[in-house]
Amino acid sequence: MTTSLAEKPRLVDTGPEHAALGLAHRVLLPAGAGPHPTVVMLHGLSGDDRVMWIFAPRLPAGWLLVAPRAPHPEPRGGHAWLPRAPHEWPAMDRFAPAAARIERLIEALPATYGADPEAIYLMGFSQGAAAAFATTLRRPDLVRGVAGLVGFMPSSCEALADGRPLAGKPAFLAAGRRDPLVPLGQARAAAEVLRAAGADLTYAEYETGHKVGVRGMNDLGAWWSARRAELGR
Question: Residue 100 burial by CB count (10 A; 0-12/13-18/19+): exposed, middle or buried?
């Protein structure tokens, strides 16, 4: 069973919930008191808290979904997890402030929205995938699994992969062979880091550009169905 958006996600940009999570966000609350399996959805460069909901129908029904808005306004519109020039691949230390904001948000989810702290997943698109990978490598204790969509790995992160900090954690990475923004070599390098870190990686390449096509969406849905089966809820 997958998520239906019959109910619209609620925008939270003021008040105690915003203060607790530290970022404006949209949230779709499941029925019941929880604890809820949770997906935090991280948009890419020039995106915002609205754009990741296109993937929500592929996610398990009855889970808590949260889409934060990145903190840096972009001159051309939208927001970014960090300022980035075209074809620049920022190092892990550049992603540290963004990862810290995401970590704070994750830590606040159980008390604020009834998230299950043992079942919080990250899913990011493009730069959001890089932010998701950075957060997962920095704080694997906070994240049960991670999905990256046409994204890249922050550079200089090999040391964090030492010791296999993601051993046994499920990961998904979709890459476009004709992606003009994240070259295939960057995606393949990200896959190698995830494998070196011990992740149980599902990696697939598609004949697409900087997007997730029909095959990729189907594979993503199957991956999330497997996560639901693992939890049994």
Answer: middle
Per-residue pLDDT of the chain (233 residues; tens, 9 = 90+): 666 566 799 999 999 999 999 999 999 999 988 899 999 999 999 999 999 999 999 999 999 999 999 999 998 899 999 987 777 889 999 999 999 999 999 999 999 999 999 999 999 999 999 999 999 999 999 999 999 999 999 988 888 898 899 999 999 999 999 999 999 999 999 999 999 999 999 999 999 999 999 999 999 999 999 999 999 99
Torsion of Cα atoms, 177 then 181 then 187 then 193, to 10° = 170
First to last CA, the chain: 10
Residues 6+ apart with CB under 8 A from 70: 23, 42, 43, 47, 48, 79, 80, 81, 98, 128, 131
Give the CA count within 13 Å in the CB-facing half-sphere of 113.
30
Q: Which residues contact 34 (CB under 8 A, 6 or more apart)?
A: 64, 113, 114, 115, 116
Helices assigned H by DSSP within 89-126: 92-113
